């Protein structure tokens, strides 16, 4: 099943049907606030975006499906960079269509206990951020950087997970340089 999903995601990307390059939210837009269930380190917890934003910027990244190859790679990359984001005062949060039971396991095994992954099985958050994949019931791979004033600072959309961390890190670094504490 996962192999079939990975092949379908790859084929969709090649056909250009799943790109989120025209995300509805643009830099300067107000980010939709939400509360949902999430997991960190294998433990379920409530995630309130407004609370996370009180601490600093939030890197909110959407990914299609837990435990698929690209999503696992992206989780590993964000896990490796979480301490660097934290040093800049930023919080990393992943979101997918998966249920909380899946996210509990994914947070422990693939996110390496480093950051929260939110469950959005009804796709309410995914839809509010225009992160729904065009041809499937999953989210597209889109990363947002949201500032503490609830504004979208940066948007990056690509099914290739390789650059999401570097690009969002740069946006957070630039924001931090302009907002020295």
Q: Overview of this structure, please?
A:
The structure is a single chain. By secondary structure, the chain is α/β, with parallel strands linked by helices. The protein has a single domain, classed as 3-Layer(aba) Sandwich (Glutaredoxin). Helices cover 38% and strands 21% of the residues. Strands 2-1-5-4-3-6-7 form a 7-stranded mixed β-sheet.
Give the SSE map:
Elements: H1 2-15, E1 35-40, E2 43-48, H2 49-53, E3 58-62, H3 69-87, E4 91-96, H4 100-109, E5 116-119, H5 124-128, E6 142-146, E7 152-157, H6 164-178
Parallel strand pairs: 3-4, 4-5
Antiparallel strand pairs: 1-2, 1-5, 3-6, 6-7
Helix pairs in contact: 3-6
């Amino acid at each position: 099943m996962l192999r079939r999903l990975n092949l379908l995601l790859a084929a969709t990307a090649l056909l250009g049907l799943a790109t989120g390059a025209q995300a509805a939210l643009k830099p300067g837009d107000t980010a939709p606030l939400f509360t949902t269930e999430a997991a960190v380190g294998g433990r379920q917890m409530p995630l309130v975006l407004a609370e996370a934003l009180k601490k600093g910027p939030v890197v909110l990244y959407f990914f299609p499906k837990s435990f698929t190859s690209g999503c696992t790679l992206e989780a590993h990359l964000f896990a490796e960079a979480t301490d660097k984001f934290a040093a800049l005062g930023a919080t990393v949060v992943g979101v997918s269509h998966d249920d909380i039971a899946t996210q509990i396991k994914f947070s422990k095994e693939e996110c390496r206990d480093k950051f929260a992954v939110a469950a959005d099985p009804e796709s309410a958050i995914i839809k509010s951020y225009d992160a729904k994949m065009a041809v499937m019931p999953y989210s597209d791979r889109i990363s947002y950087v949201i500032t503490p004033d609830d504004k979208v600072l940066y948007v990056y959309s690509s099914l290739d997970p390789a650059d999401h961390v570097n690009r969002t890190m740069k946006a957070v670094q630039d924001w931090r340089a302009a907002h020295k504490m």
